[in-house]
Amino acid sequence: MEALLELEKMQRVLSLMSSRGLSHTDSSCGGAAADRFLAQFLLFMCRSYFMFHGLDVNKPQAIFKYLPVLSFTESYIYQLDASNEDCLHVVPDDNTSKVLGKKEESLNETSLSQMIEPLEGLLQCQGLMTDRLRTELKSGIQYWSLERKLCQALLRNEKISIEDVMMAIHLKSFDYRVLNLLMFQLTGQHVNELHMDFLSVSEFLVEISDDL
Asked: What is the superkingdom listed in this entry's lineage (predicted)?
């Protein structure tokens, strides 16, 4: 029953985002986009994650046993990330951007926190939530806020802080860490700190490479 209530909360969040023009869902191509997302996500998990958790990618049961929780979590975070990106080109002082300004206002740090709460609640109901997972989800809120701060500064030709840039690069891959922590929970393993440290360095290098 609790899980159903959390799913209802998620549906309300997604409906709210759609009503404010913040959702990237398009009924004409939503099915195809969803299929592409699932295929890409499945390939990504098999290539980058399962080997670290003792799972054999040649055994379908090892893949599909955990796929529902992992893909749902990633797609929910992806939707929030895409919505946040809608606000990045908005300059608050520009009176010609009233509609986009409303989008930015609707996605302040408080509302982003509220939007991610249903995911936290659902993971809690499934017995998967940990303090560390909660911390990583909060780092996502911090990243989205920092992303807006940096982009707005660039649009205004203001000086940006190198410390903010480095912090944003570090925080950007928070969803990867969330997925890895979920894998440890789903497989009943203790978190491998060496594994997490390795991924932290790997994620950092990948993000820098993507930006070059």
From this structure: Eukaryota
How far apart are the C-alpha atoms of 207 and 212, rounded to whole Å? 9
What are the b/e assignments for 41-60, b being 16+ CB within 10 Å? bbeebeeebbeebebeeeee
- Give the relative orientation of helices 67-85 and 109-125 as an angle to the nearest 10 degrees: 180
Q: Is residue 34 part of a domain?
A: no
> pLDDT tens digits, residue range 119-158?
999 999 999 999 999 999 999 999 999 998 898 888 889 9
Question: Is 25 among the domain residues?
Answer: no
Domain span at residue 94? 2-10+41-211
CA 82 to chain centre: 9
Q: Helix or strand or coil: residue 151?
A: helix
CA–CA distance, 105 with 79 (Å, rounded to integer): 17
Residue 116 lies in a domain: yes
